[in-house]
Each structure stands twice: as structure tokens, then as C-alpha cells.
Amino acid sequence: MNDDEIASIRQEIRGNLANVLERIASSARKSGRKPGEISLITVSKGISPAITELAQVEGCRVFGESKVQEAQVKIPQMPAGLEWQMIGRLQSKKVRDALPMFSLIHSVDRDSLAGELDKHARELGKPANILVQVNISGSEKQGGVPIADIQPFIDKISNLDYLCICGLMAIGPYPAGENDLRQAYRELRVLFDGLSGRMGANFKTLSVGMSGDYELAIEEGSTMVRIGSAIFGNRRYK
Ligand SMILES: *Cc1c(COP(=O)(O)O)cnc(C)c1O
Questions:
Q1: Mutation pick for ligand 1 pocket among 17, 41, 43, 214 (CB with most ligand atoms within 8 Å)
Q2: What is the CATH number of domain 3-237?
């Protein structure tokens, strides 16, 4: 990239980000919350380190990656002091590499994965922060625990001392109309609220909403949105 290209991409990201932050704020207010109560995860999967860094320069601090290998290459090239979160499917054999890099793992949906995270977190001497991924789409390839199995799953992994269960994560059904999406997110919020009453104070994150549906997700109770293409622009994704 030459300097002109960098300047123009930076400007595009700045405009996109301002737009996203404004929409997050307005959706938060619509749902009776303050803009600061919604966390933004900037999804940098598939984005080069140089362009990811432009988002950092524009103010992004928390990034979401979906592949351990890509994160291993990217994170060392980025400034220190940023936060990285794992939003993609995680294989048990990658847990050892993933844990030291990520402050939150969004995609825990199997006992075996939970057990592996607990084991390696114990070795590191620091609990692993995780979200339980809920399957609200009925599509198996998205992963996630079906709603009906969430309570037993959480009961089962709750006795792992080195897991900190911080909330739930879901990927919206796709394709879906607005009414179906709202309905799915409303059910998710009811599930989340029910669990919140029983879980400790750490259980406070509901990670749902992407570029195509984050406003709606916030209106229906999301506390954390994962946004890639609305910030970086579609065409930069490989
Ligand atoms: C890619 C991805 C996102 C971001 O998607 P955009 O539509 O580009 O905002 C969010 N969550 C997960 C789990 C993803 O894989």
C-alpha cells in the first residue's frame, strides 16, 4: 500500500466507525441503556495487520479473531495493550495456543472444549473467561448448544474451577426476516436473564449482533456486538 491508499482506507474506516458508534448509541438509548453499556468488538478476521492497525489508530481497542493461526501471526505485529477475543470455533487441540492470546473465548459449546480450557487455564494460573455459545438458528454448522440443553450444559461446566462463565454468545439465524430475528433474540434475552439470576456477578455479557443486525440485537438486549464489514468494508474480507 502506498501512502495515498493508506490515507484513503484510514478515512473510510474512520467514517464507518463513527457511523457504527452512532448507531450503537442510538440503539442503546432505544433500549433504555447508555451507549457505554454496549461493548464493541472489532472483527479483524481476514484483515491484514496493516489495515487492522488503521482501526486501532482510529480508536478500536478490542478485536475479534476467528482463527488461532491467523491471530498468532497478527497479534505480535500489532501495538501492545490491545485486547483480543476468540469469536470463531475453537478446536480443543488449539486451546494451549489460544488461551494466552485471548481475554475472552466466545464459542464454548462442548464439554471437551470446556475441560481443555479449564486444564490449560489451571496451568497458566489464571481462569479462562468464556461465553457459552447458544445455537438459536437450528443450523448445526454454526455450532452452539441448543437452547433446551443450555442449563444442563452450564451445570456441567460450572464445577470447573478455572472457567469463568461470563455470559452467552449467539450467531443470528441467516437468512431471516426482521421479525424472526427479533423473536430469536428476544428468546435469547429471556434465557440470559433467567440464567443471570442464578449465576454469579461475572455472568453479564450477551454477545449477539453483527454488521447486518447489530442495531436490532441491541434493541433486543445485546450487551456486546461483533462488527467486521461495517467497519472495514466488505471488500477487504478475503
Ligand atoms: C465474521 C464474524 C462476525 C462479524 O461479521 P460481520 O458481518 O463482518 O460484521 C461476527 N461474529 C462472528 C462469530 C463472525 O465469525
A1: 43
A2: 3.20.20.10
Q: How many A from CA of 81 to the centre of ligand 1?
A: 23
Atom of ligand 1 nearest to the CA of 66: 15
- Kindly report the pTM of this predicted structure: 0.97
Phi-psi region of 138 (alpha: psi -120 to 50; beta: other; left: phi over 0): left
Q: Whose CA is nearest to atom 11 of ligand 1?
A: 226
Q: Is 139 helix (H, G, I), strand (E, B) or coil?
A: coil
Question: Where does 82-125 have alpha helices with state H?
Answer: 95-98, 111-124
Gap from CA of 125 to ligand 1 centroid (Å): 31
C-beta separation of 27 from 33 below 8 A: no
Q: Tell me the pLDDT of the chain (238 aa) as tens digits.
A: 899 999 999 999 999 999 999 999 999 999 999 999 999 999 999 999 999 999 999 999 999 999 999 999 999 999 999 999 999 999 999 999 999 999 999 999 999 999 999 999 999 999 999 999 999 998 888 899 999 999 999 999 999 999 999 999 999 998 899 999 999 999 999 999 999 999 999 999 999 999 999 999 999 999 999 999 999 998 776 6
DSSP character at residue 166:
E
Spatial contact of 87 and 62, defined as CB atoms under 8 Å apart? no
- Cβ contact 49:6 at 8 Å: no
Closest CA to 38 of 229, 222, 234: 222
**Which of 39, 66, 208 gets mutated to test ligand 1 (max ligand atoms within 8 A of its CB)?**
66
CA distance 94 to 50: 25
